[in-house]
Amino acid sequence: MRVYLAGPDVFLPDPAARAASLKAICAQHGLVGVWPIDSLPDEPPAWRQLGEARRIALCNEAHIRGCDALIANLTPFRGPSADAGTVFELGFMRALGRPVFAWSNTALPFTARTLAFLGRAARADGAAWRDGEGLQVEDFGGADNLMLDGAITASGGVLVCQNVPEAARWSDLSAFARCVAAAARSA
After folding, report:
1. Distance from C-alpha of 149 to C-alpha of 102, rounded to nearest angstrom
2. Which of these, 17, 64, 101, 106, could form a disulfide with 157 (CB 3.0-4.6 Å)?
3. Residues 179, 90: contact at Cβ < 8 Å?
4. pLDDT score recorded for residue 124
5. CA-to-CA distance for 12 and 172, rounded, in angstroms?
6. Does the predicted model carry a pTM greater than 0.70?
7. pLDDT digits (tens, 9 = 90+) for 2-36
8. H-run or E-run covering 155
9. If we measure between CA atoms, which residue out of 88, 118, 116, 90 comes closest to residue 103?
10. pLDDT at 26
């Protein structure tokens, strides 16, 4: 089973080493990990004339279409929620009707992370949390936005969340390994 490895991991200082680590864990479970910046063997020559951002987006979509499932790193990235590109890729795979699995190195619920990020929110008489602009804060007890949690569940996938020390947030792969094992069992 080929699995697309979505996540902000491509932004780490050594993305090639990260790719090797993730792919090795996949291989231990009989899966083939596909990294977002892997070369695309059948890339249309016309794509090479495009701007780099457009070419990367097209290649990532092609990689996703060529995979049987997706495993997403939903560890909060530059805010209380998952990386926006990863979220797109998760939704893209879900729209293809294929299984989506995810992992996160925080088990703190999305609402708590959002409130901490905002620094200022209010709740009157048991009503919904409101931010400084008066906008409602999502409060469903999920790991992230309800659409992400829902997509994973509806696809038959699982979401593995665990708390790790802050210093290990981008290096601890134990939740990823558990997620890969679940994906392999589903194959």
Report:
1. 9
2. 101
3. no
4. 77
5. 13
6. yes
7. 999 999 999 999 999 999 999 999 999 999 999 99
8. helix 146-155
9. 90
10. 98
User: pLDDT digit string (tens) for 113-146?
Assistant: 999 999 889 987 778 999 999 999 999 999 999 9
- Per-residue pLDDT tens digits for 94-118: 999 999 999 999 999 999 999 999 9
Q: Which residue is associated with the tokens 């879900």?
A: 94
Residues belonging to the chain: 187
**Residue 109, burial from CB neighbour count under 10 angstroms (0-12, 13-18, 19+):** middle
CATH architecture of the region 2-107+143-186: 3-Layer(aba) Sandwich (3.40)
Give me the amino acid identity at 182.
A
Burial 27-47 (b: 16+ CB within 10 A, else e): eebebebbbbeeebeeeeeee
Q: Which residue has the tokens 């290096």?
A: 171
- What residue ranges do the domains of the chain occupy? 2-107+143-186
The per-residue pLDDT for range 70-80, each reduced to its tens digit, is 999 999 999 99
